[in-house]
Write a structure and sequence with these properties.
With 174 residues, this protein is mainly alpha-helical. Helices cover 76% and strands 0% of the residues.
Protein backbone atom coordinates (compact mmCIF):
# COMPACT_ATOMS: atom_id res chain seq x y z
CA UNK A 1 0.00 0.00 0.00
CA UNK A 2 1.33 3.40 -0.92
CA UNK A 3 0.31 6.25 1.29
CA UNK A 4 2.03 9.59 1.23
CA UNK A 5 4.58 10.44 3.91
CA UNK A 6 2.39 10.13 7.00
CA UNK A 7 4.23 12.81 8.95
CA UNK A 8 3.43 15.40 6.27
CA UNK A 9 -0.35 14.85 6.19
CA UNK A 10 -3.12 15.24 8.72
CA UNK A 11 -4.87 12.20 10.21
CA UNK A 12 -7.99 13.10 8.20
CA UNK A 13 -6.02 13.20 4.94
CA UNK A 14 -4.41 9.88 5.84
CA UNK A 15 -7.87 8.41 6.54
CA UNK A 16 -9.17 9.58 3.16
CA UNK A 17 -6.19 8.02 1.36
CA UNK A 18 -6.61 4.77 3.29
CA UNK A 19 -10.37 4.77 2.58
CA UNK A 20 -9.82 5.35 -1.15
CA UNK A 21 -7.21 2.61 -1.38
CA UNK A 22 -9.44 0.08 0.39
CA UNK A 23 -12.83 1.23 -0.89
CA UNK A 24 -13.33 -1.85 -3.07
CA UNK A 25 -12.55 -4.23 -0.21
CA UNK A 26 -14.86 -2.32 2.12
CA UNK A 27 -17.64 -2.37 -0.49
CA UNK A 28 -17.28 -6.12 -0.98
CA UNK A 29 -17.38 -6.63 2.78
CA UNK A 30 -20.54 -4.52 2.99
CA UNK A 31 -22.17 -6.40 0.11
CA UNK A 32 -21.40 -9.75 1.72
CA UNK A 33 -22.67 -8.58 5.10
CA UNK A 34 -25.83 -6.66 4.18
CA UNK A 35 -28.26 -7.33 1.34
CA UNK A 36 -30.50 -4.28 1.83
CA UNK A 37 -29.04 -1.27 -0.07
CA UNK A 38 -30.38 1.29 2.43
CA UNK A 39 -29.08 -0.66 5.42
CA UNK A 40 -25.78 -1.17 3.59
CA UNK A 41 -25.49 2.61 3.06
CA UNK A 42 -26.21 3.17 6.77
CA UNK A 43 -23.56 0.59 7.65
CA UNK A 44 -21.07 2.31 5.34
CA UNK A 45 -21.74 5.63 7.06
CA UNK A 46 -21.37 4.02 10.49
CA UNK A 47 -18.03 2.56 9.41
CA UNK A 48 -16.77 5.88 8.06
CA UNK A 49 -17.86 7.65 11.25
CA UNK A 50 -16.00 5.08 13.37
CA UNK A 51 -12.94 5.46 11.14
CA UNK A 52 -13.14 9.24 11.38
CA UNK A 53 -13.28 9.01 15.17
CA UNK A 54 -10.18 6.78 15.08
CA UNK A 55 -8.31 8.87 12.46
CA UNK A 56 -5.52 9.83 14.87
CA UNK A 57 -4.95 6.21 15.92
CA UNK A 58 -5.11 5.03 12.30
CA UNK A 59 -2.53 7.66 11.35
CA UNK A 60 -0.04 6.32 13.90
CA UNK A 61 -0.93 2.61 13.71
CA UNK A 62 1.83 0.16 12.91
CA UNK A 63 -0.46 -1.69 10.49
CA UNK A 64 -3.06 0.90 9.41
CA UNK A 65 -4.79 -1.39 6.90
CA UNK A 66 -5.26 -4.07 9.54
CA UNK A 67 -6.53 -1.44 11.98
CA UNK A 68 -8.96 -0.16 9.35
CA UNK A 69 -10.33 -3.67 8.80
CA UNK A 70 -10.61 -4.23 12.56
CA UNK A 71 -12.88 -1.20 12.74
CA UNK A 72 -14.85 -2.37 9.67
CA UNK A 73 -15.17 -5.80 11.28
CA UNK A 74 -16.31 -4.46 14.65
CA UNK A 75 -18.91 -2.10 13.18
CA UNK A 76 -20.18 -4.86 10.86
CA UNK A 77 -20.46 -7.37 13.73
CA UNK A 78 -22.43 -4.81 15.76
CA UNK A 79 -24.68 -4.19 12.75
CA UNK A 80 -25.33 -7.92 12.25
CA UNK A 81 -26.09 -8.36 15.95
CA UNK A 82 -28.58 -5.46 15.84
CA UNK A 83 -30.18 -6.91 12.70
CA UNK A 84 -30.62 -10.29 14.37
CA UNK A 85 -32.20 -8.66 17.41
CA UNK A 86 -34.60 -6.79 15.13
CA UNK A 87 -35.07 -9.82 12.87
CA UNK A 88 -34.87 -7.90 9.62
CA UNK A 89 -36.33 -9.75 6.69
CA UNK A 90 -33.94 -10.65 3.88
CA UNK A 91 -34.58 -9.23 0.44
CA UNK A 92 -36.30 -11.28 -2.18
CA UNK A 93 -34.07 -13.31 -4.48
CA UNK A 94 -34.58 -11.01 -7.50
CA UNK A 95 -33.48 -7.97 -5.44
CA UNK A 96 -30.41 -9.85 -4.22
CA UNK A 97 -29.63 -10.80 -7.81
CA UNK A 98 -29.93 -7.17 -8.92
CA UNK A 99 -27.49 -6.08 -6.21
CA UNK A 100 -25.06 -8.81 -7.16
CA UNK A 101 -25.26 -7.65 -10.77
CA UNK A 102 -24.23 -4.15 -9.63
CA UNK A 103 -21.27 -5.45 -7.56
CA UNK A 104 -17.79 -4.67 -8.97
CA UNK A 105 -16.43 -8.17 -9.27
CA UNK A 106 -13.42 -8.10 -11.61
CA UNK A 107 -11.28 -9.75 -8.94
CA UNK A 108 -13.73 -12.56 -8.35
CA UNK A 109 -13.82 -13.89 -11.90
CA UNK A 110 -16.75 -14.42 -14.21
CA UNK A 111 -20.01 -12.72 -13.24
CA UNK A 112 -21.87 -15.97 -12.73
CA UNK A 113 -19.12 -17.40 -10.54
CA UNK A 114 -18.89 -14.21 -8.52
CA UNK A 115 -22.66 -14.25 -7.97
CA UNK A 116 -22.53 -17.85 -6.83
CA UNK A 117 -19.53 -17.06 -4.62
CA UNK A 118 -21.21 -14.04 -3.02
CA UNK A 119 -24.36 -16.05 -2.33
CA UNK A 120 -22.26 -18.81 -0.79
CA UNK A 121 -20.27 -16.31 1.31
CA UNK A 122 -23.53 -14.89 2.66
CA UNK A 123 -24.51 -18.39 3.79
CA UNK A 124 -21.30 -18.94 5.76
CA UNK A 125 -21.42 -18.77 9.52
CA UNK A 126 -20.55 -15.24 10.72
CA UNK A 127 -17.07 -16.24 11.99
CA UNK A 128 -16.24 -18.06 8.75
CA UNK A 129 -17.67 -15.25 6.61
CA UNK A 130 -15.51 -12.63 8.27
CA UNK A 131 -12.25 -14.57 8.05
CA UNK A 132 -12.84 -15.55 4.40
CA UNK A 133 -13.70 -11.96 3.42
CA UNK A 134 -10.49 -10.71 4.99
CA UNK A 135 -8.48 -13.45 3.28
CA UNK A 136 -10.13 -12.60 -0.06
CA UNK A 137 -8.82 -9.06 0.39
CA UNK A 138 -5.24 -10.42 0.52
CA UNK A 139 -4.79 -9.79 4.21
CA UNK A 140 -2.26 -12.20 5.68
CA UNK A 141 -2.73 -14.29 8.83
CA UNK A 142 -1.02 -11.79 11.18
CA UNK A 143 -3.22 -8.97 9.87
CA UNK A 144 -6.36 -11.09 10.17
CA UNK A 145 -5.35 -12.14 13.69
CA UNK A 146 -4.85 -8.49 14.62
CA UNK A 147 -8.21 -7.47 13.12
CA UNK A 148 -10.18 -10.25 14.78
CA UNK A 149 -8.03 -10.17 17.91
CA UNK A 150 -7.40 -13.90 17.86
CA UNK A 151 -4.22 -16.00 17.58
CA UNK A 152 -2.54 -16.88 14.28
CA UNK A 153 -3.42 -20.53 14.93
CA UNK A 154 -7.07 -19.64 15.34
CA UNK A 155 -6.92 -17.73 12.05
CA UNK A 156 -5.52 -20.79 10.26
CA UNK A 157 -8.18 -23.04 11.79
CA UNK A 158 -11.00 -20.62 10.88
CA UNK A 159 -9.65 -20.21 7.34
CA UNK A 160 -9.55 -23.97 6.83
CA UNK A 161 -13.09 -24.32 8.17
CA UNK A 162 -14.30 -21.39 6.09
CA UNK A 163 -12.74 -22.75 2.91
CA UNK A 164 -14.25 -26.19 3.54
CA UNK A 165 -17.70 -24.74 4.24
CA UNK A 166 -17.46 -22.43 1.22
CA UNK A 167 -16.40 -25.27 -1.10
CA UNK A 168 -19.34 -27.39 0.11
CA UNK A 169 -21.75 -24.51 -0.48
CA UNK A 170 -20.33 -23.86 -3.95
CA UNK A 171 -20.46 -27.55 -4.91
CA UNK A 172 -24.00 -28.01 -3.62
CA UNK A 173 -25.12 -24.77 -5.24
CA UNK A 174 -27.28 -23.93 -2.23
Amino acid sequence: MTISNTSAITPEQFLLQLWQQNQGAISRTLLASEADPAARQDLKQDIFLALHQAAGRLHTAEMPRAYLFRIVHNVTVDHIARAQRHKWQPLEEDMQQQMLDECPSEQLGEQQQSQQLMQAVRRLSPANRQVILLAMEDLDAPEIADILQISHGAVRVRLNRAKTELMELMQNGR
